[in-house]
């Protein structure tokens, strides 16, 4: 069952902040975030493991709340280059037959305007 | 180090024709994946492989078959193409898909744009 992302789309001005949420009805063992520019392949941003882990990449960071089965991606002081579609993905646990089976949300389209 | 490559980049098929998409990776990754992405949609897992000689079904496996005879290659076959299979197909690979830190990063190929008339 794929994770659910919200919002579906965000429009920002340069310098504004945004939050993208990812939630699952199943227990999450790890969450990974990718960004895809139009016409290109998705590119890895970061991965988070269970345990309240937070990761950062320049002005893009993420958190993972395993109890709430959700992750959030934070984009601060957005730049034009941040425009694209952001996907969260989840992986099956190493302890079950779904190990390796990854599922992605439908994506959140972020548009940053000058 | 080419990463993940896919051939062909574009293909147009007629309904009922068959074809094979090739994915190759030179990173010695164990796990490989085939996804399809319809316009404005997310990535849907078709099939995946956790090692040479093994394959497993993903979310949308119907109408597709796969093979992983060599560790570095993952082939996706369409036996009888249908217009509903018009999509962009992405291949990806990773060291593992087991929830392990820094090993689950998926590296994506550039995609194959397939149109079925």
- Rg of Cα set of chain A: 14 Å
- Rg of chain B is 14 Å
Overall helicity of chain A: under 10%
Structural class label of chain A: mainly beta
* Gap from first CA to last CA of chain B: 36 Å
- Please report which band the strand proportion of chain B falls in: under 5%, 5-15%, 15-25%, 25-35%, 35-45% or over 45%: over 45%
Secondary-structure class of chain B:
mainly beta
Number of helices of chain A: 0
The secondary-structure element order of chain B is: EEEEEEEEEEE
Name the poorly predicted regions of chain A: none
Name the shape of chain B in a single word.
Answer: globular
Task: Please give the largest β-sheet of chain A.
Answer: 6 strands, mixed
Overall average pLDDT of chain A: 86
Number of discrete helical segments of chain B: 0
Average pLDDT level of chain B: 92
**Tally of DSSP β-strands of chain B:** 11
Biggest interface: chains and residue counts?
A: A-B, 28 and 29 residues
Low-confidence stretches of chain B: none
Q: TL;DR of this structure?
A:
The complex is a heterodimer of chains A (114) and B (117). Chain A contains no helices and eleven strands.
Any descriptors?
heterodimer; A: 114 residues; mainly beta; 6-stranded mixed β-sheet; 5-stranded antiparallel β-sheet; 0% helix; globular; B: 117 residues; 7-stranded mixed β-sheet; 4-stranded antiparallel β-sheet
Describe the structure.
The complex is a heterodimer of chains A (114) and B (117). By secondary structure, chain A is mostly beta strands. Helices cover 0% and strands 54% of the residues of chain A. In chain A, strands 2, 4, 5, 9, 10 and 11 form a 6-stranded mixed β-sheet that branches. Chain A is globular. Chain B has 117 residues and is an all-beta fold. Chain B has strands spanning 4-7, 10-13, 19-25, 31-37, 43-51, 54-57, 65-67, 73-78, 87-94, 107-108, 112-116. In chain B, strand 5 (43-51) and strand 6 form a beta hairpin. Chain B is globular. The model of chain B has no long low-confidence stretch (mean pLDDT 92). The chains are: A mainly beta (114), B mainly beta (117).
């Amino acid at each position: 069952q794929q994770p659910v992302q919200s919002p579906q789309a965000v429009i920002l001005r340069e310098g504004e902040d945004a939050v993208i949420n990812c939630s699952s009805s199943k227990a999450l063992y790890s969450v990974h975030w990718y960004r895809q520019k139009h016409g290109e392949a998705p590119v890895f941003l970061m991965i988070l493991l269970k345990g309240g882990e937070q990761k950062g990449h320049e002005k893009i960071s993420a958190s993972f709340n395993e109890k709430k089965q959700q992750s959030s991606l934070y984009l601060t002081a957005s730049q034009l280059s941040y425009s694209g579609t952001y996907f969260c993905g989840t992986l099956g646990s190493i302890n079950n037959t779904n190990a390796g089976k990854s599922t992605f949300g439908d994506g959140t389209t972020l548009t940053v305007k000058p | 180090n080419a990463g993940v490559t896919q051939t062909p980049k574009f293909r147009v098929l007629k309904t009922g024709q068959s074809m094979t998409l090739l994915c190759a990776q030179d990173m010695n990754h164990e796990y490989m994946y085939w996804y399809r992405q319809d316009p404005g949609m997310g990535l849907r897992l078709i099939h995946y492989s956790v090692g040479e000689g093994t394959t497993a079904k993903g979310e949308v496996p119907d109408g597709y078959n796969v093979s992983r005879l060599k560790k570095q290659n993952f082939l996706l076959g369409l036996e009888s193409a249908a217009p509903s299979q018009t999509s962009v197909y992405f291949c990806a690979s990773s060291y593992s898909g087991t929830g392990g830190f820094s090993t689950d990063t998926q590296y994506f190929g550039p995609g194959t744009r397939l149109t079925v008339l």
